[in-house]
Amino acid sequence: MRDLKRKDRLLEAAGDTYGKTLALQTLDVCDVESVKQCVDSVKDRRVDVLINNAGIGLLGPLESIKMEDMKKVFDTNFFGAVRVIKEVMPDMKRRRAGHIIVMSSVMGLQGTRQCA
Length: 116
Ligand SMILES: NC(=O)c1ccc[n+]([C@@H]2O[C@H](COP(=O)([O-])OP(=O)(O)OC[C@H]3O[C@@H](n4cnc5c(N)ncnc54)[C@H](OP(=O)(O)O)[C@@H]3O)[C@@H](O)[C@H]2O)c1
Prior knowledge:
Shape: globular
CATH architecture: 3-Layer(aba) Sandwich
Bound molecules: NADP nicotinamide-adenine-dinucleotide phosphate
Strand content: 5-15%
Number of helices: 3
InterPro entries: NAD(P)-bd_dom_sf (IPR036291), SDR_fam (IPR002347)
Family: Belongs to the short-chain dehydrogenases/reductases (SDR) family.
Mean pLDDT: 94
Protein name: Retinol dehydrogenase 8
CATH superfamily: NAD(P)-binding Rossmann-like Domain
Keywords: Oxidoreductase
Largest sheet: 2 strands, parallel
Number of domains: 1
Organism: Synaphobranchus kaupii (Kaup's arrowtooth eel)
CATH class: Alpha Beta
């Protein structure tokens, strides 16, 4: 997560897995240094399964949405996933093992009224 100060709800949901099978690290997928530091913090940089879940939504009439807000969506949802994949893919290829899961949206397949 981007800000570990906001971890309380997550820890509550995690129960006694925290510290055993669950660890938390800071990660901002919009910041390539943050991505690198997060992957470096994993033992031997070994990521067996990458789940690209980070994402933000933006709904509304196209003409009323600022370009900078639209760019933030692409920087997070698309380039954010690309940054993390670029960081783990070379190691996965070297090991010839690994899985990458990317969260998407039904809105990538079908449109909805008043949304571009
Ligand atoms: N809920 C829906 O109806 C819906 C529909 C279609 C697609 N999706 C997609 O499904 C995924 C999960 O959605 P959700 O509804 O569970 O959303 P959510 O509760 O808002 O969770 C999104 C997560 O993305 C993280 N995130 C956002 N920007 C980030 C960044 N720059 N770097 C790292 N983490 C970042 C947030 O972490 P922080 O704790 O740091 O804020 C948050 O934990 C997203 O990719 C979303 O686009 C959701």
